[in-house]
């Protein structure tokens, strides 16, 4: 993440999964950290029209959005193509976004989308502030719009002016450090993992074998998709798991021992 040391300490623990007494909720949180070399399923909009954006990976771990504004540019957009694009909007109503916005004109974050191939709806407008370079703000909000219900087939995050004016400051950027979509009201600080004991996995991403390295005597090894569905159970003594049968996506590996539960994310390529 692109953070100062103090920010890293403060923002040290948002769990990827909601756990109760060491057990996984039926539905996991959906989280995007932008720590790797990809945009994690999000796409940009080229051109100089009403909706525009250009993506780049900041080397310190954030998705950097820039734009070349045109005469009608009013929306700096992120198109969701991952699990959020087929989201159960009846359950996932809580969102946390951590961004650095250096535009003096952009002051609204909008969640926009479409449910069951219906009309596009602006579900919520969240006021945001202007940041100095390398400083981040955290926005936690609940979508209470009654139209945010059912299954989404389109999901967008839009940055815009509250007065609906044209965006002209082409030297500004928005850095997106983290997006978290949750069924829980307890959005606080974030973490990529839950960790009662140490373990590592490699390679990540992987297309076949996932290696586990831990000193723990494990009671179970389980793999879940991002909707919280268990997709694989491995032998507890196994140090190598064959994940070749899984679809290309992001998954969660959960290890349980007498010392507790530890969780990490991995990508099946």
TrEMBL record:
Residues 1-28 form the signal peptide. This is Secretion system C-terminal sorting domain-containing protein. Residues 201-267 form the Secretion system C-terminal sorting domain. It comes from Wenyingzhuangia fucanilytica. InterPro entries: Secre_tail. It holds the Pfam family Por_Secre_tail. Keywords: Signal.
